[in-house]
Amino acid sequence: MATTRITKTAGEVGPDAYTDWRTSALGAITEVLEQELILELSGSVSGKAVLEVGCGDGALTREFWRQGASLVVGCDPDRRMIAKAVARATAGRPAISYLLGRTEHLPLRARSFDLASAVTVLCFVEEKSQAVREMARVLKPGGRVVIGALSRWSTWAASRRIRAWLGNEFWRQARFATARDLRAMATGAGLRVDRLCGAVYYPHFALAARAMKPLDPILRRITTFGAAFIAIQATKQA
Ligand SMILES: C[S@@+](CC[C@H](N)C(=O)[O-])C[C@H]1O[C@@H](n2cnc3c(N)ncnc32)[C@H](O)[C@@H]1O
To answer: How far separated are the first and last CA of the chain, in Å rounded?
Structure first.
């Protein structure tokens, strides 16, 4: 999802745009790499209470449930996204709760979750630090935050900036993150940063994605520079 190719305005981007992206050649490869990184940083979720903020159509919430989480909650302010997530969850009957809400003001009790994740959400949130503080608030002591974000230092971000200058409203609203931004937000929320990694090092072409995807796990260990997607893992200390 992080690297969705979207040309519509924010108001027009609904769940179908994300489905189209995932079924495209470039989207399918990219989604797998991003989800692999998020799941690696999340660690085992078996028996754990998991929250995903900005859950969209719920793809990651369903994966957390498949991996054995005891409680999964997805939260998003867009009714169309929540409706799609609910419809998809009903089909497989997973025990996932979805609710309407913004990351900056989560309608959830403090110290309730073992893991709180946000993937490609913060770029659309104005009060980013408040959003991360809220994620930290609802975590149990020792719980983990995993945030995946669109990176500022990649060819994908450069082409999105050009599209924004050319009038694309969706990308005009987005604010891309650096590794330093993610680190500052996590430490500002009182979290201990454990890992910071990148994914999706190829340019925005399916051919390049096919050829270069084996390099991704190697580059991930070396640098976040050039990655279209960066992710942080941080812990709420007891
Ligand atoms: C690019 S989608 C990512 C969806 C999902 N995380 C994924 O990776 O498939 C961004 C999502 O963030 C949601 N969003 C936007 N502003 C938000 C906010 N302030 N709090 C929580 N979610 C928000 C949007 O409604 C949208 O579903």
So the answer is: 32
Give tens-digit pLDDT for 196-234. Answer: 999 999 999 999 999 999 999 999 999 999 999 999 999
In this structure, how many other beta carbons lie within 10 angstroms of the beta carbon of residue 23? 10
Give the residue-averaged pLDDT of 120-139: 96
CATH number for the domain running over 10-236: 3.40.50.150
Using CA atoms, how far apart are residues 164 and 161, in angstroms rounded to an integer? 5
Pocket of ligand 1 from Cβ distances under 6 Å: 1, 4, 53-56, 59-60, 76-78, 81, 102-104, 119-121, 124-125
Domain residue ranges of the chain, discontinuous segments joined by +: 10-236
Percent of the chain predicted with pLDDT > 90? 76
Give the span between the Cα atoms of 235 and 13, in whole angstroms.
Answer: 33
Q: For ligand 1, atom 27, which residue shows the shortest CA distance?
A: 56
CA distances from 15 to 67, 81, 99, 159, 231 (A): 24, 6, 16, 23, 23
Using DSSP's 3-state secondary structure scheme, residue 135 falls into: helix
Q: Which residues have a Cβ under 8 Å from the Cβ of 87 and sit 6 or more positions away?
A: none
Ligand 1 centre from 47 Cα, in Å? 25
